[in-house]
Amino acid sequence: MAEKKTLNIAVIAGDGIGPEIVREARKVLDHTAAKYDFALQYTDLLMGGASIDVHGVPLTDETIEKARENGAVLMGSIGGDAATSPWYRLAPNLRPEAGLLKIRKELGLFANLRPAYLYPELSGACPLSNKDGSRSFDLLIVRELTGGLYFGARHTETVNGLRTATDTMTYNEEEIRRIARTAFETARKRRKKVTSVDKANVLDTSRLWRAVVEETAADYPDVELSHMLVDNCAMQLVRNPEQFDVIVTENMFGDILSDEASMITGSIGMLSSASLNETSFGLYEPSHGSAPDIAGKNLANPIATILSAAMMLRYSFDMEEAADCIEKAVQKALRDGYRTADLMGAGENLKRCSCSEMGGVICNYI
Ligand code: IPM
Ligand code: MG
C-alpha cells in the first residue's frame, strides 16, 4: 500500500488571539486530513511577543531555519497592545512586528495574496450602501511584500536643529516584474482582469512600476490590464468594488488597501492571506491582527485562519479538492446562521457561537 502523503507544517500561533484561532484551524485541518486520507506533521515555532518572552528577540535564525524545513507555515497573529505591552518599550527592530517583516524577507515571501469576497450570507454586514442586498464582489489584492518603504534604508537625525526622519522607497524592475507575473497568472485563473495601482503622477517608483507592468502584460494578451492611482482606488473600493478582479500594488499601498477591502466584506475576521515565494512554499495567516482586547476569551472569529489553512492546501500542497471542502464548510456554517460575535448583525435565526464552537461547526461540515 502506498504511504500516506504527509504535509509538514510549521505553526506559529503567536500572540493575542493567535493561539485560539490557530487551534481551530488545526482542528479543521485534522478533520480534512481524515476525510482525504493524508497525514499532518506540525512543528510549533515561536515568533513575535511569544519569542521575545523566551529569546529576547521576535524571531531567531534557528526558527527561520526550522520554518524552511517545512512545506508551509500556518500563522495566527503577532503583537500586543502598543500602549501597555512591555514589548513596545523595546527598540523598533526588537518589537513583535519586526519578526514578521524578517520572516517575510528571509523566506523571500514577495507575493501576498489577500482575497476580499462578500459572502451572500453576510451581505447584511457589508457597510456599503446595499439596501436591496444586491452587492456581490470577489476581488484579490496581490501585494508586493518584500520591497518598498518597508525595507528601504531609514534613519532619524538632527538637521539644522530639527529632528528629521527619512524612509526610502526603492523598487527595481525585477521586483516589479515578478509580482506583476503573479498577478497576471492569478488573474488567468479568475476573471482575467488586472488593475495595477500606483501613484505615477508623483513617484518615480510608480512610474517604473507602471512601465514594467505594461511590459509584462505583453506575455498575457488574454488578461485585460488597466492602471489606477492609489487615491482613486481607495475611493473606488467603497464606491464600486464589483469593478475589480485582481489588484496588484506595492507593499505600503497594498497594506492600506487590503484593510479597506477587508472591511467592506463585513468583518476583518473573515479574510485569509497567503504570502508566497518563487516556489510553492508559503506563509498563511489571517489578514487581521492579534486583537489583544479579546485574547483568551474564546470570542475571536477563527474563519480567516481556517480559510488561510484552505489557501495553504491549495497553493503549497496542490490539494484543490480539500481546500474547496474547507471553503464550502465555512459557507455552510454561515448559511446555517452560525456567527461569532463580530458577525452578529441583522439577520433571522442567527446562532451566536464562540471561537471553539465555530471551529467545531465547520469541522462537522467537512
Ligand atoms: C499586515 C500588517 C503588517 C504589515 C504589520 C503588522 C507590520 O499590517 O500584514 O498587513 O504592515 O505588513
Ligand atoms: Mg496591514
What does this 3D model show about the protein?
It is a single chain. This protein has helices spanning 18-36, 49-55, 61-68, 96-106, 173-188, 204-217, 230-239, 251-263, 303-315, 320-335, 355-364; strands spanning 6-14, 39-44, 72-77, 111-117, 138-144, 154-159, 162-167, 193-198, 224-229, 246-249, 274-276, 282-284, 338-339, 351-352. It is α/β, with parallel strands linked by helices. The longest helix has 19 residues, at 18-36. It is globular, with a radius of gyration of 20 Å. The mean pLDDT is 95.
Q: What does the largest sheet look like?
A: 10 strands, mixed
Query: Counting H and I runs of at least 4 residues, what is the number of helices?
Result: 11
- Please, what is the average pLDDT? 95
Share of β-strand residues? 15-25%
Q: Structural class from helices and strands?
A: alpha/beta
Cα shape: globular
- The oligomerization state is single chain
